Amino acid sequence: MNQYRTWPQAACIDQPHAQGGHDLAQQVIYTLLCEHQTDNGCRQCRSCYMLEENTHPDYHCIAPEESQAIKIDQVRECINAVQRSPRFSQCQIIYIEHAERMTTQCANALLKTLEEPKEGLYIIVQTERRRALLPTILSRCQIIGTSTFATVASTPVEQLISTQPQYQFLRFTHRNKTSEISGCIQDGQYQILMSVVLNSIVTTNWQPLSLSEELSRFDETLIYESFIHCLYAVLFSLSDTPDVHEGFFEAINQSHLTGPLPARSVLHAMIDVCLTSIQSIRRGMVSTQRYRVESTLTKLKKLHHGKSGCISVISDRIH
What we know:
This protein has helices at residues 21-33, 46-52, 72-81, 104-115, 135-138, 156-163, 170-173, 178-186, 188-203, 208-215, 220-237, 246-253, 263-280, 287-304, 309-318; strands spanning 10-14, 59-62, 92-96, 121-127, 142-144. The chain has 319 residues and is α/β, with parallel strands linked by helices. Strand 3 (92-96), helix 4 (104-115) and strand 4 (121-127) form a beta-alpha-beta unit.
């Protein structure tokens, strides 16, 4: 039986984003928009595929950029979009992540739509600080915790991610695309490569030549992607929501090779191992991968407000 068929049109998920709040929202969204109305979506129909690719015309997500507040233009754009009839599915969804970052102006812009949601429109508000929301918003939503509905991992890959800390950061780096995550986990070569990467981090004592020999067995693109994925994981672990990749640090700190490392030390070690590995491989980096590294380093500069001198040096070294 479809456990979400009685889902309210206006709901507030009172649960942190990385502790089940986002997962519950995604299960509801897939269920409501799935052509077969399967719990958590069938992941095979066209509607589920468009959700995977973030191209579904009837799904509208509002999320803050990094640590900034949600902008009123984001809210207005979604409200205007749902004024039209659904383009593909029988319903439309507005999903607001980290709703506590809405300004009073944003909340007021959303209020009228919450008061009188049209038929077939679902508004899902996720927050980890319910008290930060305006009472007028809360009074028009049904408050829901993750315990209200079952949030069981429905595939072997999801079960593995939920139980193995070293795989949890894949949920972010691959944007929750089950097919891509499945490919990474099931690829024995990828697991070996990730082991090399993690060991390089926790030992903080690597030799470019020996590391190059270990990595020479792997495809060059896969090497770059693996290091960059780890770099992204560490980067966002140090953002305003450090619990997003808590499992990644847990896997590092539980290693028998070394004692616990401060998060900043892990960050610097990751950047160093990424650069030394790239430099020890004679063939040049493809332009798309170079762009991703440069983009990451730019975000790191902003994140640390230029406090770390080595960040600027590293950025100069990569050019």
